Amino acid sequence: MPTGAIIAGGRSTRFGDADKSVAELAGVPMIRRVADRLAGADDPVPPGAARAAGGDPVVDDLVVNCRPDQREAIAEALEGYPLPVRWALDDEPDRGPLAGIRNACRAAPGEYALVVACDVPFVDPTFAETLLSDAADAGADAAIPRLDDRWFQTTQAVYRADATAAACDRALARGDGKILAAVEELSVVRVDDSTIRERTTEHTFTNVNTREEFEAAEARLAEHV
Questions:
Q1: CATH code of the region 3-223
Q2: What Pfam families is this protein classified in (predicted)?
Q3: DSSP-derived 3-state class of residue 7
Q4: C-alpha distances out from residue 77 to 95, 151, 156, 191, Å
Q5: Residue 54 and residue 128: Cα distance in Å, rounded?
Q6: Where are the alpha helices (DSSP H) in the chain?
Q7: Spatial CB neighbours of 205, under 8 Å, sequence gap ≥ 6
Q8: Which of 16, 40, 74, 216 is the most buried (most CB within 10 A)?
Q9: Cα 176 from chain centroid?
Q10: What is the DSSP letter of 21?
Q11: Is residue 139 within 8 Å of 95, Cβ to Cβ?
């Protein structure tokens, strides 16, 4: 299984004054919900409800990427987590998700890292598991979903840790902070829209950037729990 890598170093500017990674979503910090779904310890909310609640983990361990000032609150949110947790702190904060992915991949002990943003509380663990198979079976450096044949879901994807960290280093050294700048250097399995919809639903990519989206996520939880 891959290492789970949660990217949480953003400033949450659209969310208000609070750090959305530890905002309590129906009583549970959002980053904990994401982590728990990968460990099979969350509430049974689709997609992947059975695997998310009471199923086997889809990762061996967890790496958390965040700023140093976030660590204490996130560590409290993850207290008692059933899998080993490592930290990948941003030595240079505010360099964007590309630097976060680089740092998480550097810290990942496994060959592959399942990279997930901290604000996708309905991530489908079964779908995430298929991405590892896509990459490993092809001997590729990454497996990245492409929703609606337009948007690459680069923060819900599987990456070969060492190759990706090196590609991110090169992109950052060039002054290019776009994730796709690093992805272009990798061998990638592109998981197309029809395959995504055969395996899961678009709710796996639902992210929470604003208070309105947070309230909508709480309403969705209330429907199923």
A1: 3.90.550.10
A2: NTP_transf_3 (PF12804)
A3: strand
A4: 24, 31, 21, 32
A5: 16
A6: 30-39, 49-52, 71-77, 97-107, 125-138, 161-173, 179-183, 193-199, 211-224
A7: 120, 145, 147, 153, 156
A8: 74
A9: 21
A10: G
A11: no
pLDDT in tens, 99-150: 999 999 999 998 999 999 999 999 999 999 999 999 999 999 999 999 887 7
Phi, psi (degrees; rounded to nearest 5) at 169: -55, -45
Taking the domains of the chain in order of start, what are their residue ranges? Answer: 3-223
Identify the residue whose tokens are 């740092």: 103
Q: What is the largest CA-CA distance in the chain?
A: 47
Contact 106, 165 (CB under 8 A): yes
**How far apart are the C-alpha atoms of 116 and 169, rounded to whole Å?**
20
Angstrom distance (rounded) from CA 220 to CA 217: 5
Contact 211, 15 (CB under 8 A): yes
Collect all residues with Cβ–Cβ distance below 8 Å to 194 and sequence separation of at least 6.
Answer: none
Q: Kindly give the pairing relationship between strand 24-25 and strand 28-29.
A: antiparallel
Q: Which own/partner contact pairs does 219-223 have at CB distance under 8 Å and 24+ positions apart? A: 220/45, 220/122, 221/25, 221/26, 221/43, 221/45, 221/121, 222/26
CA 187 and chain centroid, separation: 20
Question: Cis (ω within 30 of 0) for the bond into 97?
Answer: no
pLDDT for the residue 94? 73
Torsion 154-127-52-102 (CA) sign:
negative
User: Which run of H or of E encompasses 156?
Assistant: strand 156-160
- Whether this prediction's pTM lies above 0.85 is answered by yes
Are residues 126 and 200 in contact, defined by beta-carbon separation less than 8 angstroms?
yes
